[in-house]
Design a protein that fits this description.
The structure holds 2 protein chains of 2 kinds. By secondary structure, chain A is α/β, with parallel strands linked by helices. Chain A has 7 helices and 10 strands. Helix content of chain A is about 35%, strand content about 30%. In chain A, the strands form 2 sheets. Chain A has a 6-stranded mixed beta sheet with strand order 6-7-8-3-9-10. In chain A, strands 2-1-4-5 form a 4-stranded antiparallel beta sheet, covered by helices on one side. Chain B is α+β, with helices and mostly antiparallel strands. Chain B starts with a helix and ends with a helix. In chain B, about 50% of the residues lie in helices and about 20% in strands. Chain B has 12 helices and 14 strands. Classes of the chains: A alpha/beta, B alpha+beta. Chains A and B meet through helix 2 of A and helix 1, helix 9 and helix 12 of B.
């Protein structure tokens, strides 16, 4: 497997058992995502988008095939090792934010840092920086119920980047937001990608997302149906050509 | 690294009602446990503290208690000058022949109880060095005078100095009140042994003899001599050993109390289990999130187990506080070893408090184990899908 790819999936198959039926969520999918790219995985419901994201994030195992992230193969890792690996390399953003309701914004962002060797003062510094990046430095003592949906998702993004992970994976990050908040979140993810060179893999239904990403991977019925540049990339190419 | 404790603490506080209901159940079980153990400790202390390490009790061979014993005057005469026995300033041996008998005594407010009336000689006050006249004076020999243990005062009729007690066939004038450092003697009435013999028509024999030994006296040799000497032919043992055997009643109460507490604890464990299963069920997404962030399955299990423990230990402390008013409370107990009533005080000791906390913690662990294991075993993907 080539280590220059942030994500490298080779002939990945994921099959689920549903009672007596076998569901082929992913069927022989091979993709490579270069480092520092912002990519979207798109497709209709049931096309295998979230399954692919879960495999990349190391929270699910392929039935066959190989998965490597940041040059490290995770296919055969045991659950305990995978947990430690996720803590080091993966930043997760969920559709419904998945913040812990009894913890403040600060404490939610601090959670992944508890799995590192950082001291309390260093953790505080990291959390404050992450919350500043997402524009919520003044909301760090707020509980999730005291924040809007867009603000909650920003906290979730701060939690995803606070450990400086190899890759950020986002599952429908705008799916629960109004149009304005969705645009803000997508803009924030572009900033993260451009300013901090974070590799971001995003699963989305949102057609607006195409404008923000470098590449769109289209899935249909568990099969990779196409790979196309995002409008941002096309815009950049057009600008390059006109220059 | 572990999931932060504040996560568990705040989660418990968010679910105030279910936390309070479960904690209340555990607290009540712990309160019952503490009360039973305080009673056992009080009984044990009252019975066991009755003996002095340098005293020996002599009874008939084969007798298990002084109640079933009989010693003839020649046997007493043959033993009282043995070399291991301490002498008073006048050179008299500190050997106290005694005759405890059960008498019915009128309770304040109605009813009667079996009370020990102990016939003794004045030397008894020297041999039983924990016994002191706290009010009035010692009875005079050969007249129907008695001194009353302070555990009986206020519980039974006519115990005040100057009153007349009707015990057995006779009337006895109360001339003194004595204390005995909380021991079972405080639940007795003491009178002249000869008058007690006459009143109970028992003849000229004693039930037992108490011996005060010289410091460093060879107890084993004395026991052997008392057993082997054909003129004595009796059974001797140290008072602490004797009262340790008598404390069997307290041990039986302890077993009974533990059985009751364990049965109640099973109910409380199911309560805690129910609460923790509900906690795991309503926080499935949080569990999935924690796991996805990188917390190990063991860390998640430890977190939920810790939550159950925090709840149980807090409830345990509440249970101890609920039971604390019982501490020092005096009451009486029918001792079926001596067939007499014993006054004692509940004793909530630090050891009982520690045991109560451990008991609560055990309930927490048992109640939290299966739900915590369920949380640990969840697949991250399934847990996250439960949104």
């Amino acid at each position: 497997m080539d280590s220059k790819f942030a994500v490298d999936l080779e002939h990945v198959v994921r099959t689920y058992k549903r009672d007596e039926f076998e569901v082929h969520a992913l069927d022989d999918v091979t993709i490579q995502v270069p480092e520092s790219r912002f990519v979207a995985i798109m497709g209709p419901s049931g096309s295998g988008k979230t399954t692919m994201l879960n495999l990349i994030a190391g929270i699910d195992h392929p039935t066959s095939g190989r998965v490597a992230v940041g040059g490290e193969e995770i296919t055969g890792m045991k659950e305990r090792d995978l947990a430690a690996w996720r803590a080091r390399h993966i930043g997760l953003v969920f559709q419904f934010y998945n913040l812990i309701p009894v913890l403040t914004a600060f404490e939610n962002v601090e959670l992944p840092l508890l799995l590192t060797n950082l001291g309390k003062a260093e953790r505080r510094e990291h959390v404050e920086t992450a919350l500043k990046v997402v524009g919520l430095a003044d909301r760090m003592d707020h509980y999730p119920r005291q924040l809007s949906g867009g603000q909650e998702q920003r906290v979730a993004i701060a939690r995803a980047i606070v450990t400086d992970p190899t890759i950020v994976v986002a599952d429908e990050p705008t799916g629960d937001l109004d149009a304005k908040s969705a645009e803000d979140i997508l803009g924030l993810m572009v900033d993260l990608n451009q300013q901090f060179h974070k590799t971001i893999v995003m699963v989305t239904h949102d057609p607006r997302a195409e404008r923000y990403v470098d590449t769109v991977y289209r899935l249909d019925k568990g099969v990779l149906a196409g790979v196309e540049p995002g409008k941002r990339a096309r815009g950049a190419e057009a600008a390059e050509a006109s220059a | 690294m572990a999931v932060p404790l504040k996560y568990n603490l705040r989660s418990l506080l968010v679910r105030r009602i279910s936390t309070a209901m479960t904690g209340g159940g555990i607290a009540l079980v712990v309160a019952v446990f503490v009360i039973v153990m305080a009673m056992v400790a009080g009984l044990n202390s009252t019975i066991s503290d009755t003996g002095s390490p340098d005293n020996m009790i002599v009874i008939r061979r084969g007798a298990t208690t002084e109640t079933y014993s009989a010693i003839q005057l020649p046997q007493f005469d043959a033993m009282k000058f043995l070399p291991q026995i301490k002498r008073d300033n006048a050179g008299n041996p500190m050997a106290s022949p005694e005759l405890p008998v059960q008498m019915l005594m009128q309770k304040v407010g109605g009813g009667t109880d079996n009370i020990v009336m102990r016939g003794v000689l004045p030397v008894a006050l020297e041999v039983h060095d924990k016994v002191h006249i706290s009010e009035g004076r010692m009875f005079k020999p050969a007249v129907n005078e008695v001194i009353v243990g302070k555990g009986l005062v206020g519980r039974y009729e006519n115990c005040a100095i100057g009153s007349t007690l009707h015990l057995g066939r006779g009337n006895w004038k109360v001339v003194g009140i004595f204390d005995a450092a909380g021991s079972s003697f405080e639940s007795e009435v003491w009178g002249d042994i000869h008058n007690v013999q006459d009143d109970t028509q028992r003849g000229a024999y004693y039930a037992d003899v108490r011996l005060k030994l010289l410091p460093g006296a060879d107890q084993a040799a004395l026991i052997q001599r008392i057993a082997d000497d054909p003129q004595i032919n009796l059974q001797a043992e140290s008072e602490p050993d004797y009262y340790k055997d008598q404390a069997v009643v307290a041990n039986q109460m302890r077993v009974l109390g533990m059985v009751v507490a364990i049965i109640m604890a099973v109910g409380a464990i199911f309560g805690a289990m129910n609460t923790m299963y509900a906690a795991v069920s309503t926080r499935t997404t949080e569990i999935g999130t924690l796991r996805a962030l990188g917390f190990s399955p063991a860390a998640v299990m430890t977190s939920f187990l810790t939550e159950a423990l925090m709840l149980a230990i807090a409830a345990g402390i509440v249970g101890i506080i609920l039971a604390m008013p019982i501490n020092g409370l005096s009451t009486t107990f029918g001792n079926f070893v001596t067939f007499s009533t014993l006054a004692f005080s509940f004793q909530v000791t630090p050891r009982i408090m520690l045991e109560a906390i451990i008991f609560a913690a055990v309930m927490g662990v048992f109640g939290g184990w299966l739900p915590a294991r369920q949380a640990m075993r969840m697949r991250v993907v399934d847990a996250l899908r439960s949104v």
